[in-house]
Amino acid sequence: MQIIVDHLAVLAKKMAVAPKVDDVLVIDSQRIFHGRGRCFSGLEFVTVDYYQPVILITLFAEPPVQWLDKLVAHIKPIFDSLATCLLVQRRYLPQAPSEVLWGELPKEIYAQRGSSRFYLHLAQQQNTGFFLDMEPGRLWLEQNAAHRRVLNLFAYTCAFSVVAIAAGAEKVVNVDMSRPALNLGRANHQLNGLAKDKSEFVAENILKSWSRVKKPGPYDLVVIDPPSYQKGSFVAEKDYAKVIRRLPELMPAGGLVLACLNAPELSVAFLQQQFSEQCPQAEFVERLQPHADFPDVEPEQQLKLLVYKIPAA
């Protein structure tokens, strides 16, 4: 427990000196403690994130008796002089209920990334709407999106699109079967003041709508970030191959691919095999280094972010 207290004390020091805009702290959202990677014995059930002004403790299993009460007692004095809210989400219970333990949950909450912001739905859904561990992918896209036409597959709330357009992408086409997610994506673009003609939102089941996906192309860069298992729509182990084999027709002039896979049970070798079998002309470039805030005793179980180059047809 003490290591979590120590990590939060570091956060409090950052907050004390962080700049303010309109009397609001400007500090990047971040993972404060990552127990899920099994690097901290006995704390595998907990993660701690910070989304100004909310400290989010996520419990993936029922903690030991009085463990949470003791943690709160230790950390509350650290934040007494700082306007914060402590939110606990219990992912081990049905519907992953959330509870505010102190402070007030703002009506609107954002993930902060530099000068960009993204709407969150804390205490409303299991996922926040912004994945902190995907930062290496966002950084890579930021460095490679300029003047390119980007296809963002399984776009969810379109954080990749916001980053790409801010970095100078010519156009981003966002595809996801969830209209509510894409609506939030539109709101994220508006929130960041991005030109409407730079983005397009396509609400389709990707595996059943290739003609609709292909139509706004061709593309110079494709991001593939599917759910690892979504019953009835996408199961990575059997469906990822269907996406990879379509890449040459989506980008006939060649280009770059960022292939993401957040399935601990599937290895880097699995994803590389899919490319080898379904798109053998693709050239492996690199695996992006996982985010330092998400340590794991087994690198193969971390988020996989593989970069490929597709030659011109």
UniProtKB/TrEMBL annotation:
InterPro entries: SAM-dep_methyl-trfase, SAM-dependent_MTases_sf. The keyword Transmembrane does not apply. SUPFAM superfamilies: S-adenosyl-L-methionine-dependent methyltransferases (SSF53335). Its EC number is 2.1.1.-. Gene3D superfamilies: Vaccinia Virus protein VP39 (3.40.50.150). Residues 31-308 form the S-adenosylmethionine-dependent methyltransferase domain. GO terms for biological process: methylation. CDD domains: AdoMet_MTases. It holds the Pfam family Methyltrans_SAM. GO terms for molecular function: methyltransferase activity. Keywords: Methyltransferase, rRNA processing, S-adenosyl-L-methionine, Transferase. This is Class I SAM-dependent methyltransferase. It comes from Cellvibrio fontiphilus. The lineage of its organism: Bacteria, Pseudomonadati, Pseudomonadota, Gammaproteobacteria, Cellvibrionales.
